[in-house]
Amino acid sequence: METQVLTNIIFILGIATVLLSLIASKKFCSYRRSLDGPPARLSNAVSLTLLGEAVIGLGTLIFAAAAHFGVLPSWPIEVQSTLRFIMFLATSSTTLHLMLTLNKIDKQ
Predict the structure, then answer these.
(1) Which residues contact 19 (CB under 8 A, 6 or more apart)?
(2) Structural domain of residue 11, as residue ranges?
(3) Nearest residue to 106 via CA among 41, 57, 34
(4) Which residues contact 98 (CB under 8 A, 6 or more apart)?
(5) CB 40 within 8 Å of CB 86
(6) How many domains does the chain divide into?
(7) Average pLDDT by stretches of 10, the chain with 108 residues
(8) What does the alpha-carbon distance between residue 102 and residue 99 come to, in Å, rounded to a whole number?
(9) Cα 78 from Cα 57, distance rounded (Å)
(10) What is the distance between the alpha carbons of residues 86 and 63, in angstroms, rounded to a whole number?
(11) How much is the pTM?
């Protein structure tokens, strides 16, 4: 397969992944509004986790595009590190929130 075709397919999959995470997050958020108690808290936590997944997916997509177009080497290490920090902070904090929510539900 030609490299450009493969790159385009990967880029489209990356966009689809980010969009699917956002759509699923919105769906869980709408469920939360119609629920009460532990199901509402769990729905909220899953919604936030999916937002964290969307952030890390978008960051990965940005890095892939920058590498593909040859601009990544010109980015200062501080910019690259800041993007990575944002990505990992988003996914780790939302996953931690999900774990804490599950622990609270288990204790009830």
Answers:
(1) none
(2) 3-107
(3) 41
(4) 45, 46, 48, 49
(5) no
(6) 1
(7) 81 94 95 90 96 96 90 95 97 97 94
(8) 5
(9) 20
(10) 13
(11) 0.87
